[in-house]
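Continued from yesterday's entry.
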Amino acid sequence: MNTQTTHIFLAGGGGAEDSKFLDEQFVKMLDLTKPLVYIPNAMRSKPYQSCLEWFHSVMVPLGVTVIEMWDDLRPRRPIDGIAGVYIGGGDTVKLLKEIREAGFEEYLLKVARSGVPLYGGSAGAIILGEDIRTAPEASQMNATEAQGIELITDHSIVCHYKVDDQETTMKLSKDLRQNIIAIPEKAGGYVTEGMFTNYGTEPIVIIQEDRVDAIHPNCSIKLEVRR
């Protein structure tokens, strides 16, 4: 399979109004003749019917009418048969564990590398980075257990970020030896070809131990790669 330009969307974990601008950018990239795949597994509310109802309430007003929920994490279509994948928020540890146990990680990697848009909200965003110990529920995991899917190279993701969290997040960056993308609830990032763009109404912060760079709304930055 030829590697295409990746289109990855990272939401900070707010409500539909908070992620509106990011959601709109995501939908613009979808082939709406194909189904959008929704992964609800970070949530604990099985059988996920309320999650699906919420997802419809967010996506249908944006023009997405064909939605499939794959809560069994079994690929039901080839990658060229879907519009995109949306991974919702909740418990980061539960989400990554279920994806790994189902062998669904390989499908997600192929989705991204095929140029099909991939969206992660909160926990769904965190698992796409290098290390999920940026999520409070994952803080006691060891490095092997906490290894993310690593679609965002050399960066780990913090969601629900607040300005008051800067010192704590800088310490986390040092402890994990990770660059951190810290996304507030009213912001979201779009990553393609190493460029990171903020689609939201608050700054997103890139933390590299003692260095802090703010990405303001509708601005872009080149993500630094160590290797």
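--- second protein ---
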Amino acid sequence: MSGTRRVAVVTDSTAYLPEGIAEKYDVRVIPLQVVIGGRVGAEGLDVHPADVAEALRSRRAPVSTSRPSPEQFARAYADLAAAGYEAAVSVHLSAALSGTVDAARMAAAHAPLPVQVLDSRSTAMGLGFAVLAAAEAADSGADAGTVAGEAAAAAARTDTLFYVDTLEHLRRGGRIGRAAAMLGSALAVKPILHVDAGEIAPLEKVRTASRGLTRLQELVVDRAGDSLVDVAVHHLAAPARADVLVERIRSAVPRLRHLYVAEVGAAIGAHVGPGLLAVVVSRAADPQG
């Protein structure tokens, strides 16, 4: 902990932060649990994207996920207090997609330091950009209220768009939300979805995977507009698709600041399936406030 930093930042493993960020800012990452055929493991530690992609493709073993326990959060908060932090801001994936926020709140109620728990109403780098904003504010010496405010503001400036080859994995996992309206035509189309008010919602339908990739590019350009933006590209077992999209975004977005690329982890991968291609657009704060 730096001498000026008093507030710790906590998140969960679905933030898929850029490499080195958690270590740089001492962000505590609490893993979700992934279950493959009865074998339980921590996301990113015991279970990896390739494990989930193979299980979903082969259909030999059912795949499910579960939230971290309140006890996991309680231990993390106690460790932060022991390390000398005066407060913590705990930023997590949407409550509409997971009970992780509830577990964090249960632990926060009895933590040995004040903890503000924030529902990002998103996931992947839709959550990650909020965590990054919180970490940067905390590193500058901001108080807990300011750190939480920066996280909430960053989340509100973020759009999460994604393409999946099929809605079946979302349906099986119970995470399909308003996108259920597309199920009747799922065999004839490829869905483009987005995260809206914390839920997975339908956006458009396309006929082919190549058109889905092109449409994601167009949507990124539209969401970015004239703003200075950071963009994250996610995939599951589809690196070639991701590479094509990355190059297109580099060429098409005029005020691109940072571009991150990461395969989604097992917890999100379990619900979207191989072939996922996702883009998160984070607009920079308006300097005029």
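The mean pLDDT is 90. The two ends are 30 Å apart (CA to CA). Will compare against the first tomorrow.
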